[in-house]
Amino acid sequence: MNTAGRITGIGQGGHITLAHGGGGTAMRALIDDVFLQAFGNDPAVAQEDQARFPLSRFTAEGDRLAFTTDAFVVEPLEFPGGDIGTLAVCGTVNDLAVGGARPVALSAAFILAEGLELATLRRVVASMAACARAAGVRIVTGDTKVVPRGACDGLFITTTGIGTLPAGCDISIAGGRVGDVVIVNGTLGDHGAAILCARGDLALDTAIESDCAALNGLTQALLDAVPDVRAMRDATRGGVAGVLTELAEASGVTVRIEEDRLPIRPDVAGLCELLGLDPLYLANEGKLVAVVPAEAAERALAAMHAHPLGRNAAVIGTLAEIPASGRRGDVRLVNRLGGQRVVTMPMGEQLPRIC
Amino acid sequence: MNTAGRITGIGQGGHITLAHGGGGTAMRALIDDVFLQAFGNDPAVAQEDQARFPLSRFTAEGDRLAFTTDAFVVEPLEFPGGDIGTLAVCGTVNDLAVGGARPVALSAAFILAEGLELATLRRVVASMAACARAAGVRIVTGDTKVVPRGACDGLFITTTGIGTLPAGCDISIAGGRVGDVVIVNGTLGDHGAAILCARGDLALDTAIESDCAALNGLTQALLDAVPDVRAMRDATRGGVAGVLTELAEASGVTVRIEEDRLPIRPDVAGLCELLGLDPLYLANEGKLVAVVPAEAAERALAAMHAHPLGRNAAVIGTLAEIPASGRRGDVRLVNRLGGQRVVTMPMGEQLPRIC
Q1: A146 in contact with B at a CB cutoff of 8 Å?
Q2: Where does the record place the PurM-like C-terminal domain (chains A, B) (predicted)?
C-alpha cells in the first residue's frame, strides 16, 4: 500500500474514477479510507512499497516458505454465502493450507473499473478483512489500478499468500498410494450451484449458498491427527473430478469413487438433475479432497467431524491399482448397482467466471 | 502453476477461449505449452498449487522477508522498449530492489480475455522469462483466469515478489534528512512519453522507447558503495513529482529541485512542450529516486555511472528545512533564473493505464 499518511477522505458515496488509480492524491485517499482502515495497516508502514517481516515466523529447523497466487474474476461480485473478497482471501489461504502450510500473510492487488460503486468496494474489502481475521492471516501489502469503463468488468482481485511449511510435511498431488482412502470434508458443488443461481438467468428461487470458507483450521486439525496425509487439494474450478483426475495421473493409480457416498445437498442434486450438470464437476470454495492411508481413515474422519467445516466429511472412495485394461489417470465412479463409468478430466469449467 | 504432466499441446496459432481458464485439460495444455516452457518450471513441481522454498536463501542473522505486489493493465500491451510482461517483472523486482531487498522469486497471475491471440500471449510470456532471467529471479508459481470477450481488455498480469532484506537495511520514504541530496539514475519521463506515442492518437513519429528495466543490479551496486542510502523509490505512476512529494511529507522536509539539472531527453522535452505535459509527472519504469547523505553523493554517483542503467545519473536537488512560510511536504522547483514554483502531488496520473 504505497501511500503517505495524509487522509483527505473520499466520502461514503460515489464511484471509482480513473484518478483513483493514478498514483496521486485521489489514490492515496482511496487507500487510506478504504484499504488501510479495513485491513488495520499502519499508515507509516503502508507508505513503503513493500511489506517486511522478521523471519522469526520461520524458526523451526527445516521450515520452508510456501508461496501461491490466484486471480479472482467471479461474476456476480456478490452472491449468497460470500463475495469476490471472501473468495480472494479463502482461495489463497486454502491453496497454502492444502499443501500443509500455515498462512502468514497475503497481498491483494485490485483492478477496478471506472464507475464501480465505492459502496460495493467497501463491502468487498470488509469481507476480505473479516475473512483474513477469521483465518488468522494479515493482508500486508497491495496495489490498486483503475481501468476505463468497458476495459474491465467491475472488479478483479489477485491475492498472493506466503506461509510456513514445517519440516517433513511433503503433501503432494503425486503422493497417493494404492489402498489409500479418499475423503472430502462436506457437501459438493455448493459454490458452483450458488453462482449459477445468483446469475439470475434461471429465475430459480433456491436457498443454496456458496461454501466459501478458509480451510486452514481444518487442515491443521487433520494434520495434527494424521501427520501422514498423502495428498490434499481444494476442489475449486473443475470440482472434485478435476482434483481426482490430477491425483490419479500424478500418483499413478486408479481412483474408485462410490456414487452413493458423495455428500450432496438435495437442492444441489435437484439443480444438477434439472440442468444436466454433474456435481462432481461443480466448483467448491470450502471443500478439500484428502488422501490418507487406510489405517488412518477413522482418525482423519474423527478430526474432521470435530471441526465446524468438516461436520459432513465422508470417505468417498479408494485408490486402486491401474487394471490391465485401464489407463493411467483413470477415475472410476461406481454407482449403486455396481456399474462403473470413467470420470474424465473436464475440458473446461462448466461455468465461466466461477471464481 | 497447478497442472499435471500430460502435454496435449495447444498449437502455435489460435486464440484464448473460455476453456483455457476452466481448470481442465485446455488450461493444462496452455500452462504446459506456454508458461512452464517459458519459465523453465519443473512440471512435477508445477502441478502443486504452491511453490516451496528452503529458507537457506535467508541465512544471515537478522535477514527479513520483503513482500510486494502490483497489477499491470498497460494499454497498448506492446510498445517500443517493452510490453506488459517486461513491466510486470521489472515493476515488481524494482519495488523489492528500492527497499534494499534482493529479489528471490515472483508469482504471476494472468487474467486473459477470450479472443486474445495466443501469439501475443507467447510474446509477453517470453518477455517475462527474459526479464526474470536478466534480473536473476525466478517465476515460480502462477494462475490463469479467462473472462468473456468484453469483460476485460486483452490481458492483465499481477506479479508478486518476495525477497531477502539484510539486517540493518531500513530504507524508507521517511528516511530523508535535511542536507541530503536527491539523485536520479537517468532521463525522466521516457516510459510515459513512449506509451503516449504508442497509443497512436497523436500521429507522432518519434523514437522514444520505454525505459523499462529491472533495477536490482543498480540498487545493489549503489548499496554496496553507500550502505547508508536514506530513501529510495522507483518513479512510476505519478513520476518523480509523486515520489518527491511523498518523500517531503514523510520525511518532514522541503525538497528543492533544480530544473537545470533534470536529465530529460530532448525528444521527451519536445513532446512535453508540444502537449503541455510536465516530465516531472510522467511515469518511468526504470528510474529511481535515491536520497543519500551529502558526503556520500560523489560515491553514489560514481557507483551509478559505472552501471549500464545509471550512466545518466545526476544530482537533481537537496533536502532543506521547512521554511517558516512553508508547508510540510513542499517540493520546490528552482528554475534557471532562481524563480521557484511548488510541485504538488498529482491528483491522478496524466495517462490512464500507463502500467
Answers
A1: yes
A2: 177-320
